[in-house]
């Protein structure tokens, strides 16, 4: 049995988790409310909050798991990508913790961890696991990728956004509409009461399996600007339909490229991951694809869609059994990755 402590601090969530092999014993996350009034994450404030939260969060994770620090076999932490100041807090703590306990230190790529979150096991849970090879649509505020997953650490990005991410488009559109931060979940909620076909927005034409959302974001902005000239209350009157129409086109764009990749690689094992994988319309579309396209689909539990340490710990576990450790010289990276 291997007890792995996972530490996640890539953005504005401080999280710690303990896994026994693949089984999650605890997963504790401290959110940062300070960013709401700014309409987005302020990096300096985020790193300061991580410094305040990291010790209490790790203490709670160990307590909930019913273990002590001396029971741990390894410490896994997010090395990147993310906000450099936030990553430094988690990396520095993990290095010091591992050094003091004389246990292996494991660095984890944040986006790889989102994908491997599918392999987390809950106590007494039985679920189907993605079978290799599979395609994973990884969608978050900072990333939109289609990843070909041949094995736990044999992953290739076959398509990605060439500009803005889908999650960023949700958040920016929500900000334009005057909705509170974070805007993505709010658009999802409002869209459930709107007509997705009432307003039309353009779908980009991009080669291969890549995505582009900057044009859609600009089109949405100009559309609202023109409508507000004629009716200052246009957004308030149409917020449900605007949310539904925007969400519908984003989902169509995501699924169109994923279907093209599925046909090209002849793979019907399809997973989604990342913060936007919590979106109800995307989950419904993926569910419908099982019958429509004959896919075997896999969606993470909601607690594993947003940034969390359990996904860091499961990635750490697979690296631990392969003895894939790092050392005290490792440093975080803000961009790039696997």
Describe what you observe in this structure.
The chain is of the alpha/beta class. It folds into two domains: 3-122 and 306-321, Nucleotidyltransferase, domain 5, CATH 3.30.420.40; 134-300, Nucleotidyltransferase, domain 5, CATH 3.30.420.40. 43% of the residues lie in helices and 18% in strands. It has nine helices and ten strands. The strands form two sheets. It has a five-stranded mixed beta sheet, with helices on both faces. The protein has a five-stranded mixed beta sheet with strand order 8-7-6-9-10, sandwiched between helices. Strand 4, helix 2 (84-101) and strand 5 (105-109) form a beta-alpha-beta unit. Helix 1 runs parallel beside helix 2, helix 4 packs across helix 5 (183-191) and helix 7 packs parallel to helix 8. The chain is globular. The mean pLDDT is 94.
CATH superfamily of the largest domain: ATPase, nucleotide binding domain
CA-based shape = globular
Alpha carbon gap, first and last residue: 28 Å
- What is the top-level CATH class of the largest domain? Alpha Beta
Strand order of the largest sheet: 3-2-1-4-5
Mean pLDDT: 94
Assign a percent range to the helix content: 40-55%
Tell how many strands the DSSP assignment holds.
10
The CATH topology annotation of the largest domain reads as Nucleotidyltransferase, domain 5
Count of domain modules: 2
Class by alpha and beta content: alpha/beta
In DSSP terms, counting alpha (H) and pi (I) runs of 4 or more, how many helices? 9
Relative strand content: 15-25%
CATH architecture of the largest domain: 2-Layer Sandwich
How can the largest sheet be summarized? 5 strands, mixed
- H/E element order: EEEHEHEHEEEHHHHEHEH
Radius of gyration, whole Å? 20 Å
Which regions contain 5 or more consecutive residues with pLDDT less than 50?
Answer: none
